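[recover] target loaded
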């Protein structure tokens, strides 16, 4: 697979079920293994198709990565400054898909908010290294809320002029 075979597109609400299934599969294998039952339930309710559609309708930005017609990655941004979700199909790990999704989202966020000065994410322990490679740094210790384990991370953004 080369870069041109993977396309990054804005999300469409009719893709919510496929996006939800991708997130669930990746979460179960890589993230959820460290979560309590409560954490798994909390996360599952957050990533149901109707929850994704509702957040999209409320204004969250969502981009998907597709290889041929299959959705292989997703990034969701809240308030133009916080990564809510970033998941890539296992077969496409370490191929630059997460970075391309992030760069696409960041370009859109800074276009809509040229004064943007920082971005945040609540990184799962599994994804901390990925976010570090994208330029994020921990801003607090490991936290658990409603069974969800995360490391608050942030990145300074140079505002556009």
């Amino acid at each position: 697979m080369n870069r041109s075979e993977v396309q990054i597109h804005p999300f469409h609400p009719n893709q919510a079920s496929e996006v939800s299934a991708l997130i669930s599969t990746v979460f179960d294998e890589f993230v959820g293994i460290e979560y309590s039952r409560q954490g798994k339930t909390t996360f599952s309710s957050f990533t149901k198709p109707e929850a994704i559609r509702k957040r999209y309708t409320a204004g969250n930005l969502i981009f998907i990565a597709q290889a041929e017609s299959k959705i292989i990655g997703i990034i969701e941004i809240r308030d133009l400054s916080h990564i809510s979700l970033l998941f890539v199909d296992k077969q496409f790990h370490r191929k630059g898909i997460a970075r391309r999704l992030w760069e696409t989202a960041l370009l859109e966020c800074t276009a809509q908010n040229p004064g943007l000065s920082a971005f945040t994410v609540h990184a799962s322990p599994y994804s901390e290294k990925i976010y570090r490679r994208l330029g994020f740094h921990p801003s607090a210790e490991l936290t658990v809320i409603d069974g969800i384990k995360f490391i608050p991370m942030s990145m300074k953004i140079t505002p556009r002029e």
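[recover] notes: The first strand starts at residue 6 and ends at 10.
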